[in-house]
Design goal:
This protein has 276 residues and is α/β, with parallel strands linked by helices. Helices cover 38% and strands 16% of the residues. It has helices spanning 42-45, 47-50, 79-92, 108-117, 141-157, 175-188, 192-209, 232-243, 261-273; strands spanning 9-13, 16-22, 30-34, 58-63, 99-103, 122-128, 218-222, 246-249. The protein has an eight-stranded mixed sheet, sandwiched between helices. Strand 1 (9-13) and strand 2 form a beta hairpin. Helix 5 packs antiparallel against helix 7 (192-209).
Length: 276
């Protein structure tokens, strides 16, 4: 059995360990990567992109409870609790803001809410096919229930142990990191934290739209939406208009950093150069 070896720092929140990776640079800008739903090992999932940015920026990856090397904890997943945990974790890791948030998928909600509640802490948002409240307007409680039922069935039958069933990328990883990621997949896939987040997502979207969207420099990378829903690209365009953001759409699936990391790194560098 492979021994899990965190490559970052474990901080204690509510008597449980939460893992934060940092490259410990002393750069002007700090990029904080937030994982999409059910990404089993964010610190390795994002590596193909952040390694191309690590010379110019402080790189931080927050692994929420149930993700990566963090404990699997049955904790509250309302949007304000998620943001509170992120803030407490990054502060305990002695990482100083303001931050440029880099959310993937569902953690886009956390990024928007973080900026809403604590505007001085967030310098900009760079969305990696990030979800917004617009993405959930056509979702129903039945869709959530079906998703959770599938999670429970796959976990019960251990279908995620079958090679290539669970989407993992080895891009940018060495042999030991590939072993660690695979071990984390077996431990983390479809755990109760992901289920709690799914149960909370519709209300989380409503919480955000109950207030005005924040004013924030924003760069958005979007997939073609084919693996999500037919309204995805339209909603990305609509959100870009709301935020006065630059939107770059790639003809690839949801984990766009697997395929477009070179192009994304160039765009991110240019975007941050223009920040005041």
């Amino acid at each position: 059995m492979i021994k899990l070896q965190p490559n970052g720092k474990l901080v204690t929140i509510n008597n449980h360990n939460l893992h934060i990776y940092s490259n410990n640079n002393n750069c002007e800008n700090t990029l904080v990567f937030l994982a999409g739903s059910a990404t089993v090992a964010p610190v390795y999932d994002f590596k193909i992109l952040y390694e191309k940015l690590s010379n110019n920026f402080n790189i931080v990856v927050i692994e929420k409870f149930g993700y990566g090397y963090s404990d699997i904890v049955d904790t509250a997943c309302d949007i304000d609790s998620l943001v509170s945990i992120n803030r407490e974790a990054i502060q305990k890791a002695n990482i100083i803001g303001p931050y440029i948030l880099v959310p993937h998928s569902m953690s886009g909600l956390e990024a928007i809410r973080w900026k809403q509640k604590y505007p001085n802490e967030i310098k900009a948002i760079i969305g990696i096919d990030m979800a917004t409240p617009l993405a959930y307007e056509n979702w129903t409680e039945n869709k959530i229930k079906d998703t959770i039922s599938n999670f429970n069935l796959i976990r019960k039958l251990k279908l995620h142990y079958i090679p290539k069933i669970y989407p993992l990328s080895n891009r940018g990883l060495n042999k030991e990191e590939i072993k660690q990621q695979k071990a984390l997949m077996k431990r983390n896939a479809f755990n109760k934290c992901y289920i709690n987040e799914a149960n909370a997502v519709l209300q989380n979207a409503k919480t955000i739209v109950a207030e005005e969207y924040p004013t924030c420099p924003t760069l958005l990378f979007s997939s073609n939406g084919e693996h999500i829903d037919k309204f995805w690209v339209y909603n990305q365009q609509k959100f870009a208009d709301i935020m006065n953001a630059k939107l770059i759409t790639y003809d690839c699936w949801h984990y766009i950093h697997y395929y477009k990391s070179e192009e994304m790194a160039i765009e991110i560098n240019e975007f941050i150069k223009e920040l005041v």
